[in-house]
Amino acid sequence: MIDPGSNSLIISHGFTNSGRFDDTWSFNLATNRWTNITPSGTKPLRRCLHHAVLDPSTRLMYLYGGCASGNGPCPLNDLWAFDLRTNTWSEQPNSRSVAGRDHYGISFDSRRNRIVLFGGGGNATLGDTWFYDSSVRSWSPLPSS
User: Fold this and answer.
1) Per-position pLDDT tens, the chain of length 145
2) Staple partner for 68: which of 5, 23, 45, 64, CB 3.0–4.6 Å?
3) Per-residue b/e over 30-69, b at no fewer than 16 CB within 10 Å?
4) Which stretches of the chain are DSSP H helices?
5) Number of helices and strands (H, E) in the chain?
6) Residue 99 in contact with residue 118, Cβ under 8 Å?
């Protein structure tokens, strides 16, 4: 995901044939250099099959769900925020009310200041849509009609 505040590409967590990771990296687009910005202390479990979105007004990168098999549950239903100003992770309160999932779609709606989460897989194929409002730290389902 691109952080306009630092003109950098930010990546976090993921996997290779060496296993799953919980590190966070920044690639400066002006200097073409990688910097490890992984904080010490609390951070999300190692995982794969997750996504992250940026709230550009707060410079918080939100990381949701995925799979931590070998290191924890699969699918996951946790939501974390990485503050790009302070390089700190925090698990979001009341964030576990949505079914765990991987292979989902996620975006940040800047007009309404909320995360939009759609579908995915997990214990079943999911076709639901949820909104996360960071101001009240709560998920709400999109009513089906």
Assistant:
1) 999 999 999 999 999 888 899 999 999 999 999 999 999 999 999 999 999 999 999 999 999 999 998 777 899 999 999 999 999 999 998 767 799 999 999 999 999 999 999 999 988 899 999 999 988 889 999 877 6
2) 45
3) eeeeeeebeeeeebbbbbbbbbbbbbeeebbbbbbbbbbe
4) none
5) 0, 12
6) no
Beta-strand runs (E) in 29-66: 33-36, 51-55, 60-64
Pseudo-torsion of CA 30, 4, 41, 104, nearest 10°?
-120
Non-local CB neighbours of 45 within 8 Å, separated by 6+ positions: 22, 68, 71, 72, 76, 78
How many Å apart are CA 52 and CA 13, to the nearest integer? 10
State the residue for tokens 């550009």. Answer: 56
